[in-house]
Amino acid sequence: MDVEQIAFTIIAHAGEAKSLAYSALREAEKNNFEKAENLIKEARTEINQSHQSQTDLLTSEANGEKTPINVLLIHSQDHLMTSMLAIDFIQELIKIYKKTFEKAQERVKEISDAYFAKEFKKHPTNEKNLLKGKIICGDCGKGMRLAPRTTKSYVYYCGTFSDGVNPACSRHKIDQEDVNKAVFAQISNHMRCCIDALSVIRELNSRSSGLKKYDVYEKAITRQRKELEKVNRKFSELYGDYSEHLINESEYLTLKQQYLLKSEALKKEIDNLLISQNLYSKNYKIDEDWENLINKYLKCRKLNKELADAFVDKVQVFEGGRISVNLVYDDCLEELLQVKNKREGDLNE
Question: Which residue intervals of 63-148 are DSSP H helices?
Answer without folding.
Answer: 71-122
